[in-house]
Structures are given as structure tokens and as C-alpha cells.
Fold these 4 entries.
Entry 1:
Amino acid sequence: MRRARVWSRPAVFVAVLALYGVTWGFRTLPASVRVQPPAATYHWYKGNTHTHTLNSDGDSTPDDVVRWYREHGYRFLVLSDHNFVTSVDGLNALHGADEQFLVIKGEEVSDRLEDKPVHINGLDVSGKVDPQRGRTIVDVTQRNIDAIRKAGGVPHVNHPNYEWAISGDDLQRLERVKLFEVYNGHHKVNNLGGGGVPGMEEVWDRLLSNGRVMYGVADDDAHVFKQPGNPDVPGPGRAWVVVRAERLAPRSIVDALERGDFYASTGVELTDYQVTDKTITIAIKEQPSSKYRVQFIGAKGRLLKEATSSPATYAFTGDEKYVRAKILESNGRVAWTQPVIR
Ligand SMILES: [Zn+2]
Ligand SMILES: [Zn+2]
């Protein structure tokens, strides 16, 4: 999904004004709106925000890890070793290319409270952030989020259900963080919940229903590149984000993530995604042997509409608190769009 053009509200406003000018005469309009600026062109970039190398507990060098993602059609990669920031200058000199591929600095700030792991990714941090410690799970998490912000990075809360460490109530109480992993590709992180603990998607709907706006990231958390095809090790290529940004540069990408301008995926690809004041439209890049469902989900996780053909459209009724979409492929692959707040 590249080079799709979605008109922002100001752009639509300007376009409508320009049309008005053409139809009814420019003399009725102030000078400032007569010239229509070129609409910003956005591109879609597939990337992974969570990956390990030999600089922590991965099995491959940064060079090999970056090569894997570049050769598998990704456009950007964040290297996020535990408590270590890998320099990306040499990697970008070797593998990067303008508007083709970019390596972004990162760190998985890896803290704990007693036996509970608290891992927060810092995307595009300026330097290493040390684990901050704290007295409660919320305290530890918040202190690390704030330290990542102080280092100029964008935080995302990793695998909340790993070791059942960070609850939905904990997430509800956090501040200055917009991103969390709705899906982490590691095979032991309990994305779906169980035993009375909600899965991450259910937690997401609880947060949104309570007015806590968060955006769901999907990523690999890959550690093992030398056992391709083994589902019992955390390998690459299982989950990613597709980000709508003006250009392939670190700030452009992380700012788009923080705006919720992306979708998360475990294998479903979209060809179009548009939101206007009235509708959401989703078009799927369909695999010939697969079938799809598009679920539009609102407050408290309620199914507002299910569509079975692409493109799928949802028309806002006006009383939704939020609307997000989940696209399900017939073999279990999924994509999640970010909530549109109403
Ligand atoms: Zn982790
Ligand atoms: Zn990790």
C-alpha cells in the first residue's frame, strides 16, 4: 500500500473552498484561499519496530538482521536491543537508500518489578536510556516512558501480557504514551489472554471505551534468524506496521505512528484506507485463495458492521465513541486499523 493519497480535513476544506471559488467566482473569497497549495503526498511504508540482535539476546549481527528485513520487502526497521542502542549510521550507509530503506535507532528499555518484566520500546532515542526502577508496575512503566521522552524517543509499551506483567488497569493509568503492542510475534507473550485475563484487543477496547486513546502496534520481537520456519522460536516476518508518512525519515515515521497514521498486520495487506467526516473505506489486497471479513468495531468492542467484500465502507452514525476496523483473512491473518475518535 504505497503512494495512496488520503485527503486531510484541512485539504478537503481548501479543495471545497477552491471549488466554490471556481463555481461562484473568486471575488467572493479572500485572497488567502484562492491559491490551492499542492496536497501533501503521503506514502505507505512497511516496517518493524521491535527486533533484537547479538547486541542483546538475538542470534544474529545487526548487519544480518537489517539485511533480512531489507530483503523481505520492509522499508524501515527499528533495532531495539535490551538496554542497548546500536549505532545505525554504518548500517544505513551499507543498507539504507533514499525512500527505499531506513534503519532507525531504538532500544527496548528492559526493567522489572520483582519477577514481572516491564519492557518499553524507545523509538528514535537520542541515546541509551537506563531502566528507571520504581515501586509499582505503573510507577516503573511511567518512569521508563518519561525517560524515553526525555531522550527524545517515542515510547511503546511492549507485550503487556508477557509474564502477565502489565494489566489493562495499569495501561489505563499511564500518561504520555500512545502506542502499545496489540500483537507481538514472540510465541510466549500471551497476546490473546486467558484464564480470566483479557487479550490485548479486548484491553484495547476497554481503554478506548474509557476515553484512553491508544494505538495498536504489531511487530516481530524477533530474536532468532537462524531457524527459519520454526514456530517455537521468536523469528522474523510475523507482524508489522504499515505507516502513512510524508517521507522515509526517522521523525516522519515515528510522528506518523504517534498520530495513529498506520495499520498493524500479521499478513493482511490493504490497498486503500480512507477516512472522511462521513465514512471509513477499506480496500484489501486479496489473495485469490482467501476470503475476508471486515469488522467495524465500536465502544466496548461492539461489532457495528461486518462486510464481506472489498472495498468495505462504514458510514458514521454520529453516536459512536470510536470506530476501528479489523480485517480477518480466512487462514487467521489479521490487520487492525487505528481507532477513529468520534
Ligand atoms: Zn520484551
Ligand atoms: Zn523484545
Entry 2:
Amino acid sequence: MTRPALFLDRDGVINVDHGYVHRWEDFEYVPGIVELIRHFNGLDWPVVVVTNQSGIARGYYSEEQMHALHAALQADLAQQGARLDAVYFCPYLKGAPVAAYDRNSPDRKPKPGMLLRAAREMGLDLAASILIGDGERDIIAAQVAGARGFLFKGVNVWDFARARVLPELT
Ligand SMILES: [Mg+2]
């Protein structure tokens, strides 16, 4: 028994992409994201973040700092009745200065590794799943994984989802 998921890119979809955001005080929600997450929580679709975090390989911040940011995010979402069911991240980047993370990874979008792993670990139906991302590589990762990708280029992601995504689910 598998179920569909909502995959979300992080930077540019959940938070405004100020560039390598890694501190809660710099974390600014994309308008409408809490409503979007809450909606899919209510549908019992797992909401799964899939995020390239090459800032770790570039030495801008540590995995621990990223996890602390995500813990603060989850706590804040909980206060608003919303929940992320899982966060998959890729800290690797070939040629980056932090040796431990200097490698090609099948997880780095546009490669689909994070989606495939989430499907395996969470029992997801990729063909019924959707991804919302703000970059071409997000959409490619979704397509290679067999899911449907939606490129968000607007301002309010809940307005976008209601206009473009939800009608596709019926
Ligand atoms: Mg993005």
C-alpha cells in the first residue's frame, strides 16, 4: 500500500531564497506556504522536503546548523497547525571546499535520489505524487523520479497551488 506525497523544494518555496539561508532569524516564509502545508496535512499526504544544501559543502554552515534551523521551522509550523513529515537534504557538491562533502551525489537535484529514497522509506506512490519547486532542476528531478513537477514562479504559493496544482489532483 503506497500513498502520494507532496514534495517541496525548500529555498524559494518554503522560505524566501535570500541565498544559503541557515539561521532562523533570516528565515522568511514564502507567502501561503503554511496554508499549503496544512492543506496537504489535512489530505493525509506526507509533506516531504527535498533540498539541495550545497552551502554545507561550500563551508557556509554546518549540518548541525541546518538541522537546528529545521527544528525551529518545525516548531513554528506546529504552532500554526502544520507539519513537515520528512526533510531530505543533499549536502554534497563536487569540487566544493569542504572535503567531506566534495563528491557527486545521486541526491543532488536534478538527480532524483532524494525522491527515490523517500519513496522507498515512506512507501510513497511517486506516479501520484507532486513536487513544487522554483527551479528547473527541481522539475527535472520530479520527472526523472516519475512524479509531476510544478514550477512555482509567483509570489503566493498557496494561490499558485489552488490555481495550478489542486485542479490536477481530482
Ligand atoms: Mg529553490
Entry 3:
Amino acid sequence: MNEDCQSVGVHYHSCYERHDTGPGHPESAARYQALEAALETLPASVARVGGRKASVAEILLAHEHYYHDLVYRSAETFADKLPTGDTAICEESYEVALEAAGAVLAATDAVMRGDLQSVFCAVRPPGHHATATRGMGFCIFNHVAIAARYLQSRHGLMKVAIIDWDVHHGNGTEAIFIEDPSVLYISLHEANMYPYTGLASEQGQGAGQGFNLNIPLPHHSEGSLALEEWENQIAPAIDDFKPDFILISAGFDARVDDPIGGLRWTDDTFAAMTRRARSLAARWCHGRLVSVLEGGYNPGGLASAALAHVRALG
Ligand SMILES: [Zn+2]
């Protein structure tokens, strides 16, 4: 880590507005514009991190080739949704999804170089519902999963922890790493909600047994319950695992007043969770942490919670 460098970075870009999901869709460019406006208010001490487009080889770190080709062809033929599930697309969506995945990789590069300690990547579409072979739940490519594989294959890291605090269970990330003991997946999510996976009993399979931690939370529960789970389950699991890097699937749809989520977290909840993640990263992996936007469908709430998250990174 360079002594004089800025320690916190943020990535956002108007290119993500080009992913047009159609009128009335909750995962909209308008939600992203509200977030961009909020991030513009951050002080100059927060570095702006540039992006890049992911290569096809990088997408294939977490996805099957035929699924990549399916996304490409769907966009090229002006399909209005992916044939694999409930992800609305437009002709620009394939290119935007490559930008989103690439930006997360660029952020991990910046952290690995020691230019920055942590980066929040405000990208869309979201990614954590995408499996190796299937886009669903507004997601196309699984950026966090690609980044975990990239950290291992390109930067030589052994163990990556993914903490997913989106209100929905990240079924795609779980499925990609379910048999993999080198990636610890931890999810806090609302119970009995889309995609209806994420039972506490699912703890991994085969060699991955014990490296998948699902923490379903009751409908309408407060942030204090989530913070208790950090003490009771998340911090001990990270301490046992001793990661070389922490990735966060940072959805903000567990925030009170989200039109889709049914939890009652506040901006303070997100700030407190961020401080806990930061402290675990400092303990185990030189502070290396990259967080990636997932859901969050109340534009004002998303903007406010994401700002609280970025401020707590510093
Ligand atoms: Zn979500």
C-alpha cells in the first residue's frame, strides 16, 4: 500500500444507463441516475476508478461458453429479455454487462496494485442471481463470481470471501462455488423471498461442505438483527477462513422503504456492516475489499445507503 495514496475508491459511469429494461421496470436507469448524483457529492479524497470492458475469456471464468453466446445473440437479435429467465435486456445490454464485469476487475487490479485499499463499484445490471448457465433476477453476468475467479487465476490468491447483503439470496454465486472450498460464500437475506433458495441448511457440497453460510432473516426484521448475525456467525466464519480478499455483493434493497425488499435496515445498518467488513479485511487481507452494487430499488434510498456505505469504507 503506497503511503500517500487515497485508500477508498468508487467507480460509476453513465454507460450503465444504456442497459434499458423497459418502462416501469424497478431495475432502471433512473435508479442509477439517482445513485450517480449522490456519488458526485463525495469528497475528492475518494478516488474515481476507471473501468474497462471484460474480455470473453474473463466472462468464461464463471460462465459456460454457450451461455455467453446466448447473451450475445439475444442482444444482437433485439430480444427484450434473456430466454433463461426474468432479465429484461436491450440491444446494448451485452456490451454494458461486459463493462460492468470489467469495471469490477479493474477495481480488483487497483486494490491488488496497492493503489487503493477498497473500491465500491456502482455497476448495472446486477449479477448475483446469474449462474454459470443462466441469467435471471435482472442479472446477466455474475460480476462478483468472475472477480473471485480472476483474483485466484490472475493474481494468484488462494482464498476469497464473498459477503452478500442484498435482500435476495445470491443463488447464482452460491451455485457457482457450492463445491469450492477456496471461496467462502456468506449471504444475509430475507427468508421466503425470491429466488426461494438460501436455506441455512445449505452449507456447501462435496469439498465445498462448510464453505457456504446462509443467514435467512425474518420479514420486517430490523438492522440490529443483521448486526447480531455479524457477531454470531459472519465474523467467526471469516476468522476461520482467513481470506486473501473480501468481495461484497452490496445490494441496498434490504433498506426500509424499498419497494421490493421487506426488511427494515437503515443507512446506519449499511455503515455498521461496512465497518465490520473493513475491520475483517484489515485483520486478514491487508484491508483488500471490493464491493459491487446489486439491488436497491427505491432510488433515493439506494443513493443514501450507498453513500453511507462508501463513507464507512474510509
Ligand atoms: Zn436484491
Entry 4:
Amino acid sequence: MSNNTSCPNCGQIDSVQSMPAIAATGTSIAHGSNTYTGVGIGSSGTVVPIIASANTTTSQTNALAAATRPAPPPSSVTGPATCGVLLLVVALIMLACLGVAVAFNTPTAGEAGPRIGGWLVLGGIIVLPFLIPSLIAFLVLARRTSENARITRGLTAASALWETAFYCHRCGVCYWPRPVSGVPAARQPLSPYQFQQIVWNAGGYGVGR
Ligand SMILES: [Zn+2]
């Protein structure tokens, strides 16, 4: 068994690339400028048109780099965080308004009893529709944060396997040219999906884990 980096399927070396090289060449950064149009309110209260431009940076990963990446991309946490905070603020404003309403409608001594229940029902009706989605958003946030932390913890072990592997563009196979701890067999042709599962399982975030 040879100890070079040639493809185990075709035996050639001209179409092989290491995983770090595929990741480097498969990710392109595009810079551009987008123009936005809209309307705004001028200082005198009139409606004025607005044309503005913003510079944008877009990162694109090609299919091969995506299929052989050492870890899944991290889940966004800004969405659920923003959503949870905004909904919580609305719920608190609703609660404050309700508190003011209760304060200004203090019942006289004779009619105190039945009105507390009414306020509680009203409070539930106007506050819970914002409070419950807010709590759900925070639960999603907590789950994504722990998932991202799990990927970060396993990335070192997964990257150690990933960076020693190669890909043959002619045959479309991934392989490890030399025996590596945690890899079933050296010089065994693997599909990008099989390769990804071995690497992701080493990181502790594989599908079959
Ligand atoms: Zn090949």
C-alpha cells in the first residue's frame, strides 16, 4: 500500500485537493453596493423620497465545500434574542398599562370583591399573547446557544480528522491517504456524505449520534 496522497480510486494525484484547500477555494466573498429607495417625513412634515446606498458583503460556499465542511454552520441566535426581548418589552408595557388602569379604577369599599378576578382575566388576555411567544423565543435561543456550544467543543477533534483528508475531483470521493485515529480505514473511497458523517461524529454532532 503506497503512502502517498494519490486517489485510492483512480490512483492519480492531478485532481486531488486537501480539505482545507477545498474550504479555502470554495468560499467566495463578494463585495457589492445596493441602492435602497423609500419615503420619509421631512422636517416640515412633508413626505420626501429617500435614495440611499449601503455596501454589502456576501459570503458564499460552493456545494462541495458545504458538503465537506468540518461542522454544520452555527445557528443564528440574533433572531430569537431580538424577538424574545421585543415581545417581553411589549408584555411589560401591557402589564404597566394594566397597572395604571387598576390604580385609576380603585373600587369603593362596597364593590371590592368581584372586580379583582375581572382584572386578572383582562390581564391574562392582553399580556399572555405576548408573554408566551416571548418565552418560546427564549427557549429557542437557549437551545441554539447550547447546540452552538456543543459544536464549538467538538470542533477540535473533528478538524483534526478533517484537515488530513483529501478529495478527488475526478472520482468525487473523499479519503484519508494515511491511517488516522478515529477513521475506519485509510485509502478507502468515501462519498462526501459518508466523509461528513465520520468527521461530524468525531466532533460529537453527527446525525446518527
Ligand atoms: Zn480519483
